[in-house]
Structure formats: structure tokens, C-alpha cells
From TrEMBL:
NCBIfam families: small_GTP. It comes from the Eukaryota. This is Uncharacterized protein. Pfam families: Ras (PF00071). The keyword Lipoprotein applies. Keywords: GTP-binding, Lipoprotein, Nucleotide-binding, Protein transport, Transport. The keyword Cell membrane does not apply. One of its GO terms (molecular function) is GTPase activity. One of its GO terms (biological process) is protein transport. The lineage of its organism: Eukaryota, Metazoa, Spiralia, Gnathifera, Rotifera. It comes from Rotaria sordida.
Length: 210
């Protein structure tokens, strides 16, 4: 069966944040549609692939779940190179995880292109959030706006806003790539080669003859 989709666009998407905020659960929920009730810390990085269609483009998302522990930072930092999108996760029931985002964000900006799209995500905003929530929505949204980040509150447990987050990061990554491609084509079109004829008359340049 033929389709009108453009060739596959591959994007490298990183999920970052402090250990325990639910990065692995977020990836598992999105890619496999499952919710893990048991928590296992990621060692280094984990990797999954998802394919979605955005308009006429077929997008292959290479999703990297990076370890949050400090001892793995030297390893995970290298994965920012070539990233097309970054999902920054904190736990709405843990104020320290939000503080970690604030402390770590300048490093994230330095480790990758500042134009790489980034989304701030508050996880564990479950149905009982009125009891457990400590990071207020307005505070997180204000921080996101100050740092030019899109903002979502999600619940991996309740499967809320998961697809929306990945659809949005994929759209932003695709838009950035198309803009880069258009700028490159425009730059090539603007190149002009100047051709200057060679003057064989050596005496014309003030050379004296005997």
C-alpha cells in the first residue's frame, strides 16, 4: 500500500531529571502503554523507539532515558550531543526534584544547542494530587515561561497527557529541522561565484620593457 508520507525523520529525544521522578515509567507508558508499579533506577541510559506521523512526515523517535544519579553524570552528559528534543521531568510531590531542575537547567543549556526544543514536565500529578502535591502549578509554569519552556503536568499512573508531551516535542523537533533545511537551501541559493577574466597583458600593470 502506498502512502503520501515523506521519508522517515529520525529524532533523538532525551528524558532528563533527578532519580525517582518517573522518567523510565514515562517512557514505558508511552512506548509500551504499561505502568510500572516497581521502581528500578536506570543504570547509565535506557533506549526505546517509537514511530508517529506528524502531517505528511513519519517521525522515528529515539527516546533516551538518562540516569538521574550524580555518579552517572559524566556518562549521560555526552548524550546531549546531537539531541533534537529534551523532556525535563520533576516530581510534583517532591520539591527537591523541582529544585534539581533549576540547578541543572543551566548545564542542560550549555550541553546542547539552545534552540533545541525543551519541555518541562511535572509528573505524579495523580487524581489525589490535592493531598500530595507540593510544587504548585503556577510556580512551575512561571519558571517554564521565564526559560522559554513548554509546560505540562502529567500522570504516568493515570495515563494523562503522556501522548501530548511526546507529540509536542516531536512537532517542535520537526519544525526546527525543516527550518534548518530551509535556511540551508536559502544560503546555497545566495552563493554567487565571481568570475574575473585573466588579463594576459603584463605591460598594462606598470611593468617596464627594455
Amino acid at each position: 500500500m502506498t502512502t503520501n508520507l515523506e521519508p522517515v525523520q529520525t529524532f533523538k529525544i532525551l528524558i532528563v531529571g533527578e532519580s525517582g521522578v518517573g522518567k523510565s515509567s514515562l517512557m514505558a507508558r508511552y512506548v509500551h502503554g504499561i505502568f510500572r508499579t516497581q521502581y528500578t533506577a536506570t543504570i547509565g541510559v535506557d533506549f526505546q523507539v517509537a514511530i508517529i506521523n506528524i502531517g505528511e512526515y513519519r517521525c522515528r523517535l529515539q527516546i533516551w532515558d538518562t540516569a538521574g544519579q550524580e555518579r552517572f553524570r559524566s556518562i549521560t552528559n555526552s548524550y546531549y550531543r546531537g539531541a533534537d528534543g529534551i523532556i525535563i521531568v520533576y516530581d510534583v510531590t517532591d520539591n527537591a526534584s523541582f529544585t534539581h531542575v533549576k540547578v541543572r537547567f543551566p548545564d542542560v543549556q550549555n550541553l546542547c544547542d539552545r534552540n533545541v526544543p525543551k519541555i518541562l514536565v511535572g509528573n505524579k500529578d495523580d487524581h489525589n494530587r490535592e493531598v500530595n502535591k507540593v510544587v504548585l502549578t503556577n510556580d512551575a509554569r512561571q519558571y517554564a515561561e521565564q526559560n522559554n519552556l513548554l509546560f505540562f503536568e502529567i500522570s504516568v499512573k493515570d495515563n494523562r497527557n503522556i501522548t501530548e508531551v511526546f507529540n509536542e516535542i516531536a512537532k517542535l523537533a520537526l519544525k526546527r529541522r525543516l527550518n534548518q533545511s530551509e535556511n540551508l537551501q536559502n544560503s546555497i541559493a545566495e552563493i554567487r561565484i565571481e568570475h574575473k577574466p585573466i588579463n594576459d597583458n603584463s605591460t598594462k600593470n606598470g611593468c617596464c620593457t627594455i
